[in-house]
Every structure is written in C-alpha cells, then in structure tokens.
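Write out this protein's structure.
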Amino acid sequence: MTILVTGAAGFIGFHTARRLCLDGHEVVGIDNLNDYYDVSLKRARLKELESLPGFRFQTLDIVDKPALMALFSDYGFSEVVHLAAQAGVRYSLDNPDVYAQTNLVGFLNVLEACRHYRPAHLIYASSSSVYGTNSKMPFSVEDAVDHPISLYAATKRANELLAQTYCHLYGLKASGLRFFTVYGPWGRPDMALFKFTEAMLKGLPIDIYNQGLMARDFTYIDDIVESIARLRLRPPVADGAAEGANRLFNIGRGMPVALLDFVECLEDALGMQAQRNLLPLQAGDVVKTWADISALATWVDFSPQVAVETGVKEFVKWYRQFYQI
C-alpha cells in the first residue's frame, strides 16, 4: 500500500506523513517548497521524514498537471491525503493569484489524477473558515456555508464543491476535513502561537486583534493526525444510486477558547508576561469558531482530547529545542 501525501513539508502534512510511516505504510510525499514562510523549516521537517523507513519525497507542484499525472501513473496510489494548499486568510488579501492557482487549479489537478488512477480514498483539507459569518454555534457540517469572508475561505469551499461533483460523476470516495486552528510542534510561523512565542522571547509586543475579544477552537496537531489516521480507514459510503461519496467532517477540539486565555497559557509556558498591542479586527477574520464534532465521533469513535494548556507547553518545548533558546 502506497499513500500519497501532498504538502508533506508543511505543518499538517509532515505530521501526517510521519504517522503513516510509523504505522508501517509506504508514503510518497510531494511539496513545491515555496517561500511563503521559512523554507529551512520545511527542509528540517523533510530531514526528519527522510530518516523514516518507507518515506520517499519528490519536489513537485500540484499546479503542474503533467508531472502530477506521471507521479500517479508511476505509483498507482492506494490512497491520497491532499494537504497541499496556499494557507492563510490575511495573505490572500494581497496575493490572490497564488490561491487561485494552488487551491483551485491544483486541487482540480488532484481530482483529475484521482479520476484516472482511482485511489480507494481521497482525504483533502478544507477549513473552518468556510463558515464565514455564520452565527449559529457550534458550527455544524450540516450548516449552509454560502458567505465566506476571505478568498482563502472561498477556495476551500470551492474544493468541497469540486470534490462533491467528481464523486458524483466519477464514483470517487472523498472525505473533506474542516480543520479548526491547528497548532503544535513544527507549526507554521505565520500562525498566532508561533508569532506570539517568537515576539515574547525577543521582548517584543504581540498584536492582538479585535481588542482580544476573539475565541478559537484550538486543535492540537496530534488530534488532527489521529483523526486522519482513523478516517482514512473508513471511506464514505455511497448514497443511493451514486457510486461515489463525498463526506465532510469538522476536525476541532469542540471547545472554543478565548484568545486572551490562550495568551495566558503561553505566558505560563514561557514564564513571562506578554506586552499586548490591542488592535481592531482585521479584514477576513471571524470573531469566534466552535466545531460541532459529532459527525467525526460517530464515524470513527474519536474526539480530539488535548487541552490547550498541554498543547501550548508542548509547542514551547519544541520551539526552545528547535531554535536553541
């Protein structure tokens, strides 16, 4: 069994590929190694992966359809875990073209490859950002998601619709995972926990938007990976006459945490107080996220468990070790 993990040098892709290798699978990882953030961090992740038996890496951009098709032809993947994407809500405000290429064209290329080479299951990353201005809490996969407030969110919702169409037309089986504010060791430098930690250790203030009146359903990376590991074993079941099926899952802790409480957890883990720079709400941001994870719990008998106090301490431990601080 050979599994493709796209975005393998990224945060979630790295952890997922490592788990699959440790579980005894052959894993092919691909990534374009772009410079959206520090490439040396991506290469450090790859160095860890390349020490594991069963892992192979190829530098490849999913926008390059001929190269992607050739890869599928060479390996005949049994499963695909598609995590490659241009991430970030705020970055999409200034760089829309890369989102259209990677998140739309790239995802369409992955679907086309799956159409022709027929893996048993496609797992793909969506995002909690698709809920946009929804006010009903917690967010349910049954809710309408017709009002995204960032281009990033719009591309992720488009991915879900494209997957639904390909499953209907071509009999694919796909699971779309709406990730809620993932954090933990080896995380992305553009995310709040990483930025706050870096600033505090340098004695700089941290930027807190909406005057701190925000909450997020922070989800620890190990819970994300466990969810993926279980879901890949249970493809969605075809409904009625259709051969294929596309099912959506929220992957979150199911417990929103106030941003200022999250900052206090980081202060405790670092043993220092943060200088807080309170700012207005940024364009594209939502005030609160909260995942209804009942679909996940029902389908794979698992609910994320790691509390933010524990997860933040683990991140700080990794950060100090990795950067030797």
